[in-house]
Specification:
- By secondary structure, the chain is of the alpha/beta class.
- It folds into 2 domains: 148 residues, Rossmann fold, CATH 3.40.50.620; 178 residues, Alpha-Beta Complex (Argininosuccinate synthetase, chain A, domain 2), CATH 3.90.1260.
- It contains 12 helices and 14 strands.
- Strands 3-2-1-4-5 form a 5-stranded parallel beta sheet, sandwiched between helices. A 5-stranded antiparallel beta sheet has the order 10-9-8-13-14. It has a 4-stranded antiparallel beta sheet with strand order 6-7-12-11, with no helix packed on it.
- Helix 3 packs across helix 4, helix 4 crosses helix 5 and helix 7 crosses helix 8.
- The chain is elongated.
- The termini are far apart.
């Protein structure tokens, strides 16, 4: 193991894993550690990380509010693509990693650090997402991934190490170590403990951002979301910043039991894993965005965009946010959004998101053409030739 590192920037949450890593870096590499804590809407008091870092003698502590940048420059571009990994996952963890990686590299440059470090395990996707981001932005940076180096290869050993070094071990309300969680303004994910058995239902007490659908109000709520060029800009006529808008949607949708997903997904490293996710505001946003697109995007363009989406989602999931192919796809997606402006009305009720109306100044929907009543603009006899031309190869194939 190399000990040539002089200073390392650690992505530091102040939780169990990164608190252990902080102490381990100091002992193993005998280097200065710079801690970086990003507030991306995880809903916890990030300033607590400062006190914990100071207890370990850290002199350079970065705590930054990145919520607006996170939603504006990462979540919203991804939602323009309607990205869903394997048809179900709204990529809440995946989309946060490139922002954290970018800021870590910037801090490394500011502080003269020669290495960066993260708390992702050697089994998961996050190690790939962080490190692809690091190398894309700073090709020569040294990366320290403790889970791939140390012998603390289980949760039990990690807790034993923490206790032996007077590092506090968090407990849930049952007095046990909590589920492995990742939270930001877009979602909360839960893994581990009983969830490792894909047949075991999640405990209701685990959820933090939504009520169970059956416990949601018996009266629905109706909201309107306004879009400009593919991005949500207002709720019920009130203009909001990107982070404020997503925060508001989380609040409303969570109250109505929306946004829970229980998924067995294919990790980039090859294994299947089970995760439970809460994405209330994002679930509503996806339905609304698709509804306004249905009114404003040309048929062929819309279908091509839908064909590109799984590839785009896979790139985000696997950590290729800064890759040229993701940027190329983003340019095409953003071009498709230039007329995606208007308002969508939705009803939220016991876990359901129901679109009840959409309107746009750029609407391609023509009621005079679509009507089932008599009209003067569509000659139904034209359909005969259209059908026969499309049937030609089918008829020839039967001869």
């Amino acid at each position: 193991m190399s000990t040539s590192v002089k200073k390392v920037v650690l992505a530091y949450s102040g939780g169990l894993d990164t608190s252990v890593i902080l102490k381990w870096l100091q002992d193993t590499y005998a280097c200065d550690v710079v801690t970086f804590t990003a507030d991306i809407g995880q809903g916890e008091e990030v300033e607590e990380a400062r006190a914990k870092a100071e207890q370990h003698g850290v002199k350079e502590i970065y705590i930054e509010d990145l919520r607006e940048e996170f939603v504006r420059d990462y979540v919203f571009p991804m939602f323009r693509a309607n990205a869903l990994y394997e048809g179900t996952y709204l990529l809440g963890t995946s989309i946060a990693r490139p922002l954290i990686a970018k800021r870590q590299i910037e801090i490394a440059r500011e502080t003269g650090s020669d290495a960066v470090s993260h708390g992702a395990t050697g089994k998961g996707n996050d190690q790939v997402r962080f490190e692809l981001g690091y190398y894309a932005l700073e090709p020569g940076i040294k990366v320290i991934a403790p889970w791939r180096e140390w012998d603390l290869n289980s949760r039990t050993k990690l807790i034993e190490y923490a206790q032996s070094h007077q590092i506090s071990v968090p407990k849930d309300k049952h007095g046990e170590a909590p589920y492995s969680m990742d939270a930001n303004l877009l979602h909360i994910s839960y893994e581990g403990k009983a969830l490792e058995d894909p047949w075991t239902a999640p405990d209701e007490s685990m959820f933090r951002r939504s009520v169970a659908p059956e416990a949601a109000p018996d009266q629905s709520v109706e909201i309107e979301i306004e879009f400009t060029k593919g991005d949500a800009v207002a709720i019920d006529g009130k203009k909001l910043t990107p982070a404020a808008l997503l925060t508001k949607l989380n609040e409303i949708a969570g109250q109505h039991g929306i946004g829970r997903a229980d998924i067995v997904e294919n990790r980039f490293v090859g294994m299947k894993s089970r995760g439970v996710y809460e994405t209330p505001g994002g679930t509503v946003l996806l339905h609304a965005h698709r509804a306004i697109e249905s009114l404003t995007i040309d048929k062929a363009a819309q279908h091509l965009k839908d064909e590109l989406m799984p590839r785009y989602a896979e790139l985000v999931y696997n950590g290729f946010w800064f890759a040229p192919e993701r940027e190329m796809l983003q340019a095409a997606i953003d071009e498709s959004q230039k007329n995606v402006t208007g308002t969508v009305r939705l009803k939220l009720f016991k876990g359901n998101v129901i679109v009840t109306g959409r309107k746009s100044p750029n609407s391609l929907y023509d009621e005079d053409i679509a009507t089932f009543e008599a009209d003067q603009v569509y000659d139904q006899r034209d359909a005969e030739g259209f059908i026969k031309l499309n049937a030609l190869r089918l008829r020839l194939g039967k001869k």
